[in-house]
Each structure stands twice: as structure tokens, then as C-alpha cells.
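Two proteins were folded this term; both appear here.
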Amino acid sequence: MNTAFLSEVDTRQASLSRAESRVASWILANPGEAVGASVQVVAANCDVSEPTVIRFCRSMGLDGFRELKTHLIASLHKTESYLHHDVSPDDSSSSAAVKVLESSVNALVELRAQIFTMPFEQAVEAIVGSRQMVFAGLGASGHVAGDACHKFFRLGIPCVTAIDSPTILQQASVCQPGDVVIAISHTGTWKEVIEGMRIAASRGARVIAITDPESSLADVADILFPCHPDEDTNVYTPMSSRLAQLTVLDALQVSVALKIGRSAEENLRSAKTALSSGRSGGEVS
């Protein structure tokens, strides 16, 4: 286990204010719990204000609470953390299932707190009447891109996916004004995605990014949906981050449908009727 950061917290504790020292003491005693906690939970456990927790982060030379969690994850890194950051090898199947579910619920609760500040109106205006939509993503985000394309095309908007590096770069290179490219990435660090979005923007396309607001991908975007749940995807398979991405895109699809109005509703009805007529029964997937 790499405990360098926790050792640094222990060393600096004496130089912190009394309130910040309480934050340090709690984190040193509960590093694992701190990784999965929100700033509100940490503040409550330390009996301090939320700004005090942020000041503690600054005193430790960190940019903010998210970077604190990143350092804690590195400090607690073990091989078994490749499974899921909240699950330990000693957990029963039921306990593991509950922890995974709670992690997903927490991600959505955090997303709800941010949702009113996200640029839905601006994105809807860009999408409605667009020539085509391109959904780009790699790895797990590529699956999210595919899911979004499957939903948006039913509104009557031409849609394509770009879910491998060559396709992302080539699709970007043939973009035109009136196109909207939605790039999906938890970390926002895939160089092929970043370069592709730069190319698309240079050709007049509008770039919407669903990603970490501090990432290089965010810098390229015209419209940014800051979506970065606390999840180290270098250590374990994306779970809560993927759920947050899917939720943002579902909300955006509904918002676009409402803006388009009757024609969107007719397209959705027609798509469902066509699918239903080709099968003996069942629901549209």
C-alpha cells in the first residue's frame, strides 16, 4: 500500500488550524470511508463546515475535494480495488451488491445537485435542426455513445456513432457546419477523442462534451456538461460514471423531444409501430 499522502497529512497536521486538524484526524482514521464520502458527509463527521473541508484541501496543496479523493485512492491502492472501490474481498455477495447499488445511487444524487447548472437549453438549441449528430466515445463511453445514438435517431435526427479511434478522426474530418458532435469521456484525456473534437470544431461543427470539467476535452468543447463522479477508472471498471453519462443523455434526449414537439412525438410513435408490426408481441427495447 502506498501511504505517502496519508503520511504527509499526518506530518502537516500540526500546522493546520484547529478545524482543519479535525478533518485531518478523521481522514487519517477513516481513509477508506473518506474515498466514498461527499464533502457534506466529511464535514458532518468532522463537525466542521463544508468550506473548512475545502480549506483543508487547499492547505494540503490540492486543487479541491476531488483531488483529495484521488490521492486517497492512490494511498489505499490494492490489487483487489480493481473490482470496485467500495467492495472488499471479505464482503458477501449481498453486501457487495448493496455497495454497488449505493455507489450508483450516490452518483445520481450528486448529479441531481448539479443538473440545474448544466447547459441543457444551449445544447437543445444546437441539436434541434442540426444536419446530423455524431456520438463519440471510446471503451465504456463508446457503449454509452451507442445507446444515445439508438435513442436520438428516433426523433428524426440523422445520427451516427464513432466508437473507435480511426472512425472518430475520420468522422470529425468530414463534419460540416450544422453538425453536432457529442463526445463522451469520464476522464477527458483520450488523445484521439480530443484531437477528433478539435478537427470537428475546425470544420464548423458544434462540440458538446460530457466529461470532467478540468480535462483537456472540456477545453475543446463549445458546450460542456460537467460530469465526473468520483470513480478511478484506471483502477476498476466504470460503473457509476457510466450511469451518470447515460442519465445526462436521457435527460437531453427528452429535452430535445419536447423542443421539437409534435414531429418528434410522431416519429417516436411511428418507430414503435414499425417495430411492433414486425414481431408477434413484446415491448420496444
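Next, the second protein.
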Amino acid sequence: MTVERDIDIRLLLVFDKIVKHESFSGAQVELNVTQSAISTQMNTLESRLGMRLCQRGRAGFKLTEDGKGVHAAARKLLDSVASFHNEIDQLREKLGGTLRIGILDNTITNTSVPLHKVFRRFNQREHSVQIELSIGNPTELEVGVIEGRLHLAIGDFPRKIETLQFKPIYSESHSLYCGTLHPLFQLDDAMAVDALIKTSNVVGLSYTNGMDLRMVGVENSDVAVTNVECMMFMILTGQYLGFLPNHYAEYWVRTGQLKPIQPRRFYYDSVFHVITRKGAPDNLATETFLMDLEEILPPFVPTL
């Protein structure tokens, strides 16, 4: 069988969005087209390649082995196309192309770090950049930058991966919290607090490498979560203790639903970094955004 060589890049883009969302319906929303149009485009792509790329139906979405290989190749091609547009725009000394940014979940409540002002500053420039902004946990953001799906990411990255560049930009304070239904909520006596902590269930963030757990003398969490919002759900049950960013917990503390436990004792600061991939192709949009980030955010001063 002869495979048609002239594959429309738009078909590969549709396929990439389907893989990203692991469904036709998710791609439908992002691309703003009908599901029947997506199905037609996928059928066309599979027909031209002579391969079945994915299984779909009641059993759910799943890539075939051919589909995994085609998607990996498609990502390289799409990244090369984006890089081409960026290089052409740089030759024109014009901000253009695509800028893909990832940010750690639930940072919006940190009013002392106005990331939205960085985007505002960037958008005040004359540009035709298409910004793609996504939220993820540290591992998802690191992998996204390493694989080239993100140009940069902002978050708390406990691991320092060799292939990434890390620049500290601000710190975030965390305290140990309990909900109103937890026995510690009405307790202030230090000795009694220690005794209850030892017998309490603890929820931990999976990406802190156990640092938060060790602060309360626990080796393993009773529940492990991948983001702050899941942590909040568990703490509000009144059955778990856990560390939360103070800016995120502030509303629930103010409304009497949460309480920090001995905050002068049980606390830690995490340093947020902006990460980029070492050796990544020059990208004027990325460089400009990093420049705006440095201009808007106050200089980072490490805590002693």
C-alpha cells in the first residue's frame, strides 16, 4: 500500500488536540468545531496514512501503537513549524508565533505576586503572538518544558533537573491547617496539640518529596494528592491535617472554616522558579515574556 505523502498539517493538529484531551469531545471544545467534523478529519488522516491511529467508542479513547508513533512524529513536526514561524518573526524583528506557558495550580490567590500584570505588560506590546496558557502540577510542567510542549513554566519545582534552567522569582509560605470538625480546631495547648498530631491523619502533596510530612513527624501520608485544591478538599472534611499556601487558605480562615496549627512552628517556604529548557531554540516571544516577568515582579530575595 502506498501512503499518501502530502499530509495536511491541520489534520495532524486535530490529532494532537485529540491526544491532548484523550477524547474527541475535548478537542471539539478547544478547536470550536463539530464532533462530526473532527471524526471526518481523523478518518481522512487515517486513510491517508493507511493506519488506525486510535480506538474510540463506548470503551473510551486509546491510542494504538501506530497512533503513538504517529503522534510522536507529529509533535516534532508541529514544534518545527512553530519554531519556523518564530524564527521568521525574529528575522522581521516582530513578536509572533506561539508562546506556550504553564503555571502551577492555584497561584491566582497570591496577590503579592501579580502574574496577571506580566501578561498585561506583554499584551501592551505590538505582537501577533498566540498565547497558550495551561495549569499543571510540577511534574506535568517539567515534562512539558523538557518535551518542548511548553516554552516556559512557573511553579515550585523541588527537583532540579539537569536539562532545565531554573531562575528563582518569588517564595510562597505554607502553614499546617485543620478544618472546623478536627479536634485540633478548638485546641491551643502545645502538649495536647503534639499528642493529637501524632494520631491525626495527614494529607500530603505528592511533589514535595515528603518534606511537608517530615515536618510533622510522618513518613507516609494517609492520602497523597497532586494539587492544592485536592488538599483543601481533604482538610475541610475535618479528618486530615495538611500544609496549604497561606494566600490560598486565607479565605477559609477568614470565614472560620480553617485554622493554622502553631504557625510559628509548623511552616515552610517554597521557592517558585521560572523554568526553560537548556539548548531550546531562540524564541523572541519567550525572551520578551521573561524580560516582562523580571520587570513586573519584585526582585527575588531568599529568606534566611
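The longest strand covers residues 164-179. The chain has a mean pLDDT of 87. These notes refer to the second protein only.
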